[in-house]
Every structure is written in structure tokens, then in C-alpha cells.
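Meet our chain:
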Amino acid sequence: MSKEIFVAFATQKGGIGKSTVTALAASYLHNVKGYNVAVVDCDDPQHSIHGLREHEMGLIDSSTYFKALACDHFRRMKKNAYTIVKSNAVNALDDAERMIATEDVKPDVVFFDMPGTLRSNGVIKTLSQMDYIFTPLSADRFVVESTLKFVTMFRDRLMTTGQAKTKGLYLFWTMVDGRERNDLYGIYEEVIAEMGFPVLSTRLPDSKKFRRDLSEERKSVFRSTIFPMDTALLKGSGIREFSEEISDIIRPQ
């Protein structure tokens, strides 16, 4: 396997914003932190991140404004947008290695956006080759129970037996409703701590701005595979703090 750091956002519960978080974290690390990033979109058949890139490229090709904006962005960054590979859980590792072998600028970090179910073929095998896994959960009893079953199984059957190369498995709260009781998270985190799992300190809110893609109707953008997040929209989103936490954990030695 390559020396690049492999990171997956994975859960066995769909509809929890995993692909959005993957795209936002990749964007921040690539555009703000200076990492060279690549993404393997193996969330078949949705391929949301790959589809977002295609949507953005279509807008840039058809719009003089967005074309000039992209040229200016790449000129200032002095590097291209991060590579996105369309794949599936079975072929993800092979596709990642082929991509790395052919890239002129090797990625420091490769993010894998995994399917939302462990039943998909190849998911466990691919996850076992991740250096770090970050698993989202929301303050819903069924989501918490499902997530804890998944991380416990992965740790006990694969990490502790040496079948997985994973160095760290972390949980994080997402889709947080500001009206929810704060003590509810504390209660859940006490249980999670007793089970021996770390939880990131940043809690991502349930915000419509997370779905604000590049559009002809508006100039500011938040979720993008090409452009950095609008500064005004970044404030209060938790993405800066969340991505900094991830950076501190996976930082190459």
C-alpha cells in the first residue's frame, strides 16, 4: 500500500450527511490547510461527491463568470482542484492506488466516502485499510445504538486482532439541533467514553448552508469540490473547527 494517509467517513446509517461532511472536510484541508487531497467516491450508486464535481464543471464551462472565478482561484492557490475518483467499495482500494500512481502531485490524504451500509460488498475490506475512520452520529437513540454496534464490531473484530491497519476510530456529532438539550449529548458521551471511543469536540449543526452548492442564482458557495467555502458562511458552521481537529489527528509525521 502507498504512504498516503487513507481516511474514511463511514457509518451503517444513511441520511446523516456523510458525503457532505466528506466534501467539506476535503475542501478545507485542500484549500485552507494546504494538504494535497484526493477523494474516492465509493458511495455507489449515488456518487454524490462525483456528481457535485460534474455539476460544478458544467457551470464553469457554461459561464464566463464562473470560468474567470475558477482561473483566479487556481492562480492564487497554485494547484488544481482535488482529484475525485468514481468507484465502489469493492474496487476502491485498487482505484485509489491507480490514481496515486498516475498523479503528478501525490496526495497527502485520500478521503473515502463509503456506502451507508455494511452490507455492501467490499465495505469491511476497504475500511480495514483505512488509517483513520470518522463516524457521524446524531442524538437519536436508534442512530446511536446502530453506530455503537458498528464501531464496536470494527474495533473488536478487526482492530484489536490486527486485521485492520486503522490507527484511530473517532465519533462525531452532526445534524445537531440547537433546540436539543445539551445534557443529552453529555449522557450519550458518558456511555461512549465507558465503551472506550473518542468523540470529537466539534459538533456540526443542522444547517441549510451545508447544502448551498455552486449556483447561477447566487455567487456565494459553501459545499463545493472546487472553490473554498465562503468566509461568511463558514462562520458558525463548525467546519473550520471540525477540519482542524481532523488535521491534528491525521497530520503526517
About this structure: The chain has nine helices and six strands.
